[in-house]
Design brief:
β3 (50-53) and β4 form a beta hairpin. The strands form 4 sheets. The protein has a 5-stranded antiparallel sheet with strand order 1-2-3-4-5, with helices on both faces. The longest helix has 30 residues, at 533-562. It is an alpha+beta fold. The protein contains 29 helices and 16 strands. α18 (364-376) runs parallel beside α20 (400-414) and α28 (533-562) runs antiparallel to α29 (565-585). It is globular, with a radius of gyration of 30 Å. The protein folds into 4 domains: 7-107, DNA Primase, Chain A (Alpha-Beta Complex), CATH 3.90.580.10; 110-238, DNA primase DNAg catalytic core, N-terminal domain, CATH 3.90.980.10; 255-446, Dna Topoisomerase Vi A Subunit, Chain: A, domain 2 (3-Layer(aba) Sandwich); 453-585. Helix content is 56%, strand content 11%.
Length: 586
């Protein structure tokens, strides 16, 4: 894995960093023997198959095959390059990462870092503008909404002044090009190609990731101008289907309480935070996506969706159901009275009242059922409409057991035969077509490996070489590694032999660059040796002989077809020798 970092920097981070601590920020882990177990953050699963080994400092998912060391986890979970992952972990553990501040590294910085830098400078400008005389009306608006100075600082709130070129000139004077401003979503272009500020006369909300990097902005008008909210466009660092507003500020409380509230607006997040409820986040001008739900379920055990109890809120709950179901995640709904949002509710009733409602939040499917029954009533027409309305939602449930239980509950609630409801559900299910990018988790394609007998034997040899110095020396003295069919395993085996028994797993991992190699290594590290080393070698030798016999048979047939009697005799002699050796082993 080529970088401009010295080996000492990477080694120091690797020795000081705790992979369990880092992974726990994104995955709920539980102790399982010597390792920790949780739901994989890289694919959708209902049964935990993601393991983290604190001794070996590696992770591996037995479900999708992802694996690696602490750098791999940060890169994959946060979408960072290797230098960015090193810088992030170095900052986290107080280790000076020299190469990242040097001239050579600056010229090689990724576009992401350039855009993060532009966003940070823009945030500084907005913050200064809020404190300047021109920001008086924005401060007045914040005061009116009950947002104090502590929240302004914590969330980095700012103000984009009216005018077309305020931020544009500020950034240009600091060496930020028009191209970078455009790529960061900070500027727009007129029909004549002139650059102008995207955000004007708006209260500004910086949107950060878990590391605190500013990925984009939300801007709220303080007048009747439309749109009320204007967000950053899609950029290389801002993806509205992934980002959650307030996640950085909420992360500590979420880890502590294993619960998270999902609200609709930036000011809702801030209002709850000011009321002492710090574990709230919001989507940024978009509905909940599969990626949002995937993040939420790995951050918290208890997900509470906070909606207004009006038609819009109910529709939002219904839309989220297939996504939660496909991701194998559970959610509850806290429905506020019509006319209230979290901001107005906590200001009117206080945080204790909100927490009481949260404690009594209803299961998502149960909420949808209750609302439909209450709205349509228990007349014959009402019951019919309820079943017709709920059938598509129940059909979306991936778990057949859960679907059956909810159908039974609805049957008992409205007094309609269970079979009749189920018929409607099955009819809806046959017509339902889920959106692939929202309702189903897509596992990143990886090179397929056919786990035949030879592959398993080769992998067992590598595992045994890692735990037995004597076995490693025996393999070194033989030609077994050269006979490996799998090229990746052959490369790993030869590297192990060259490093010798004193090589650590970290040393070995650092020598491999491709995701396929590193995932395979992590898989090997995560598995134990299930049989005596002697049996492993014997088994591989038998498999190797059988493979060579198959090749010899094919070669003998070819020799016969071309009339090469001398070659046929030589090959037959080798075939007989191998057959005799195989009989002797058996």
């Amino acid at each position: 894995m080529g970088t401009s970092f010295g080996d000492d920097t990477v080694s120091r981070i690797r020795s000081m960093a705790d992979i369990v601590e880092v992974v726990s920020g994104r995955v709920s882990l539980k102790k399982a023997g010597r390792s920790f177990l949780g739901l994989c953050p890289f694919h959708s699963e209902k049964t935990p198959s993601f393991t983290v080994n604190p001794v070996k400092q590696f992770f591996h998912c037995f479900g999708c095959g992802e694996g690696g060391d602490i750098f791999d986890f940060v890169m994959k979970s946060e979408g960072l390059s290797f230098p960015e992952a090193v810088a992030s972990l170095g900052e986290r553990y107080g280790i000076q990462v020299e190469a990242y501040s040097g001239g050579a590294a600056k010229t090689a910085r990724s576009e992401r870092e350039t855009l993060f830098s532009a966003n940070r400078q823009a945030a500084d400008f907005f913050s200064a503008s809020l404190k300047a005389p021109g920001g008086a009306k924005a401060l007045e608006y914040l005061e009116k909404r009950g947002v104090g100075q502590r929240a302004v600082e914590a969330f980095g709130l700012g103000f984009a002044p009216a005018g077309w070129h305020n931020l544009d000139l500020y950034l240009k004077n600091r060496g930020v090009s028009e191209k970078v401003m455009d790529r960061a979503g900070l500027s727009s272009k007129s029909e004549t190609g002139k650059t102008y500020d995207r955000f004007r006369d708006r209260l500004m909300f910086p949107i950060t990731d878990l590391r605190g990097q500013i990925t984009g902005f939300g801007g709220r008008t303080m007048t009747d101008e439309t749109p009320k909210y204007l967000n950053s466009p899609q950029t290389p660092v801002y993806d509205k289907k992934r980002v959650l507003y307030g996640i950085r500020q909420a992360s500590e409380a979420v880890r502590r309480e294993r619960a998270i509230y999902v609200v609709e607006g930036y000011l809702d997040v801030i209002a709850l935070w000011e009321a002492g409820i710090e574990n709230a986040v919001a989507t940024c001008g978009t509905a909940l996506s599969a990626e949002h739900v995937r993040q939420l379920k790995h951050l918290a055990d208890n997900i509470v969706l906070v909606f207004d109890a009006d038609r819009a809120g109910i529709s939002a709950a219904v839309r989220s159901l297939p996504i939660f179901s496909a991701e194998g995640a559970q959610a509850r709904v806290l429905a506020l009275d019509p006319g209230h949002d979290p901001d107005t509710f906590v200001r009117a009733h206080g945080s204790e009242a909100f927490l009481i409602l949260a404690k009594n939040a209803v299961d998502l499917v149960q909420f949808i059922i209750n609302e439909a029954v209450n709205r349509h009533g228990l007349s014959i027409t009402g019951k019919t409409r309820t079943v017709e309305e709920l059938a598509p939602s129940l059909a979306m449930l991936e778990d057949p057991v859960a679907r059956s239980l909810y159908v039974r509950h609805l049957s008992q609630r409205i007094g309609v035969d269970e079979a009749a409801i189920l018929a409607h559900v099955k009819g809806s299910k046959s017509q339902t077509r889920r959106q692939p990018d929202e309702a189903t988790a897509q596992v990143e394609a990886r090179p397929a490996v056919l786990e035949g007998e030879n592959y398993r034997r080769e992998k067992d040899i590598i595992k045994a070489m890692l735990v037995s110095e004597e076995f490693l020396e025996e393999v070194k003295a033989s030609s077994f590694i050269d006979e490996f069919e799998n090229e990746t395993l052959k490369t790993i085996g030869k590297t192990l032999i060259s490093l010798g028994a004193e090589a650590s797993r970290s040393d070995l991992m650092s020598l491999f660059e491709t995701p396929q190699e590193r995932c395979l290594l992590a898989e090997i590290f995560a598995q134990s040796v299930d049989e005596p080393c002697r049996n492993i070698l014997a088994g591989f030798e038998k498999s190797s002989i059988k493979m060579r016999l198959r090749r010899l048979t094919a070669a003998i047939i070819e020799a016969c077809e071309r009339g090469d009697e001398e070659a046929r005799l030589n090959l037959t002699g080798e075939q007989n020798r191998l057959k005799k050796s195989l009989r002797f082993q058996q």
